[in-house]
Specification:
Layout (H helix, E strand, L loop, with lengths): L20 H14 L1 H11 L1 H13 L9 H8 L5 H21 L6 H15 L11 H7 L4 H14 L3 E7 L2 E8 L2 E5 L11 H4 L3 E3 L1 H18 L3 H14 L4 H20 L3 H14 L4 H13 L2
Antiparallel strand pairs: 1-2, 1-4, 2-3
Helix pairs in contact: 1-11, 1-13, 4-5, 4-10, 6-8, 10-11, 10-12, 11-12, 12-13, 12-14, 13-14
């Protein structure tokens, strides 16, 4: 019998039950200890920059952003760690927000203001749609965007203009809503014409907090890492995503798959001890995950 190897899964129509953030932090520490060499190298190469991310994650650990704006947190989640670059991009967004405030007709209804904000976003920022363009820094610098980066910027601009806005997660998609008068106004940020969703998709909608929106960026980066075969990075990013948003089932599934495939890699390279440690960490997440159980049995037969 050979080790069980799986490709990534990205679709989910149900929500994984929430774990406590304390348990998620403990699991993250376990995975970092098991894979310590790669993280030691990361700290050595990034030094001061990596502490920017650690500070943001510490701020988000209670499910709220108190010391970081949504834009700053998502910039960091997208990989911008340099403080000078963060300050420049923050100032770039602030300039856009102030420009919007000057041109927005504040006497119109919330629905009309939301539409005007979306139009401003497309005219002044958004350029080419790219399915992998979740990085808000890339969007601000080049205009490349997807549903996640566009939703981040819409929510931040809408809140700057006094609207009650949030992101909404659907299968393979993120859009926004503006709440006014007790009604939720759907906003499709990737298009100037689309509005709501089909009823079948709407039933699967899940409102995202700012921290959960940050988690979505980590998840999308994890998918890209998995697809290019960088399993350790996929583990790292999906671990953070599930830590910040325990309700994101796609991130959990890709985390399980990445751990499993990394275990197989380690077994193939005769690193059985490290494979066992990583497998044990994976079983803490899901003791009934069949590939883990199959590969544990395989290891036990190979090395009693």
């Amino acid at each position: 019998m050979s080790p069980v190897f799986f490709s990534s899964r990205r679709l989910a129509s149900t929500i994984f039950p929430r774990r406590s953030l304390r348990a998620a932090w403990a699991l993250m520490v376990t995975l970092f200890v098991v894979t310590w060499p790669s993280h030691a190298a990361y700290d050595a190469s990034h030094g001061r920059q990596s502490r920017v991310e650690l500070r943001m994650l510490a701020d988000a650990a209670d499910g709220r952003l108190d010391e970081h704006s949504l834009v700053e947190a998502t910039l960091i989640a997208g990989g911008t760690m340099d403080r000078v670059q963060l300050r420049r991009l923050d100032q770039q967004f602030d300039a856009l927000a102030n420009e919007l405030s000057d041109v927005l007709d504040w006497k119109t209804s919330a629905r009309e203001r939301a539409a005007a904000i979306r139009e401003f976003l497309h005219e002044r920022v958004l350029g080419e749609y790219r399915s992998n363009a979740s990085d808000v820094a890339q969007t601000l610098n080049t205009g490349a965007f997807n549903c996640v980066s566009a939703s981040v910027l819409f929510v931040a601009l809408a809140e700057h203009c006094g609207l009650d806005a949030h992101a909404v997660q659907l299968p393979e998609h993120v859009r926004c809503e503006v709440v006014a008068g007790g009604l939720a106004i759907p906003i499709e940020t990737t298009s100037l014409t689309a509005g709501g969703q089909l009823p079948s998709r709407q039933r699967l909608a899940r409102t995202l907090t700012p921290v959960e929106l940050v988690a979505t960026i980590y998840y999308n980066r994890g998918v890209l890492a998995f697809d290019r075969g960088d399993l350790q990075t996929a583990i790292d990013l999906n671990t953070i995503a599930t830590q910040l948003d325990p309700g994101c089932r796609p991130a959990r599934e890709n985390l399980l798959d990445a751990i499993n495939n990394r275990v197989v890699e380690l077994m193939k390279s005769s690193e059985a001890a490290l494979a066992r440690q990583l497998l044990d960490a994976g079983l803490q997440i899901d003791p009934e995950y069949r590939p883990f159980l199959a590969n544990r049995a395989y290891l036990q037969r190979q090395i009693p």
